[in-house]
Write a structure and sequence with these properties.
By secondary structure, the protein is an alpha/beta fold. It is built from nine helices and seven strands. The mean pLDDT is about 85.
Length: about 200
């Protein structure tokens, strides 16, 4: 595996559009140049194996995933305490493109691991969206007939708030549904990336 020329660590609140931004970057750079990596993929796969669950259903934005989210967070934290780089190493395994976009960086320990291993290639990107925009993207969940906008143990957990402070982001991308504004921001980021390739 060749070392990447650029590693973009995307973070942001639920429904801010991290996956959308990651896929936009890959689409604009092309799959031969850019790959999207997810730290949650190896976590969910291992969790599903250990708990006899449907891995594919844990990957989507479903009530099934929401049913297990809190326990999965707890379980993932235990794994990280034992080995902070466990999920990071699993996520990068086999990645060969010169640009890696990690679409779900959630903890300072993730940022530190990538910086320790890949140094100056690492850039942090915060994806932000207003609460109203996030609600339009179904951030408010309806469970058992109740509408929940904040899920205790999820929206206030390290997996959601771990990078709210302690990181100076190299880039902040506002993703509120204004396509022109988003395009402008992404093109500025891409110009910077292309100078590294």
């Amino acid at each position: 595996m060749a070392a990447p020329r650029a590693v973009l660590l995307l973070s942001g609140k639920r429904k801010s559009g991290k996956d959308f931004v990651a896929e936009e970057l890959r689409g604009r750079l092309g799959p031969d140049v850019c790959t999207v990596l997810r730290l949650s993929g190896p976590l969910k796969e291992q969790y599903a194996k250990e708990h006899g669950l449907d891995f594919q259903r844990l990957l989507d934005a479903s009530a099934y995933k929401e049913t297990y989210r809190q326990d999965m967070i707890r379980w993932g934290e235990e794994k990280r305490r034992a080995d902070p780089g466990f999920f990071c190493r699993a996520a990068v395994e086999g990645a060969a493109q010169p640009v890696w976009v990690v679409s779900d960086t959630r903890r300072l320990s993730d940022v530190e691991w990538f910086r320790d291993v890949y140094g100056a290639a690492v850039q942090t990107v915060r994806v932000v969206a207003t609460e109203e925009t996030r609600k339009r993207r179904n951030w408010a969940f309806v469970t058992d007939g109740r509408t929940l906008t904040l899920t205790p143990g999820v929206d206030d957990a390290e997996s959601e708030c771990g990078l709210d402070q302690g990181v100076t982001f190299d880039w902040v991308i506002t993703n509120d549904g204004d396509e022109l504004a988003l395009d402008e921001q992404l093109e500025t980021l891409l110009r910077s990336l292309r100078s590294r390739l």
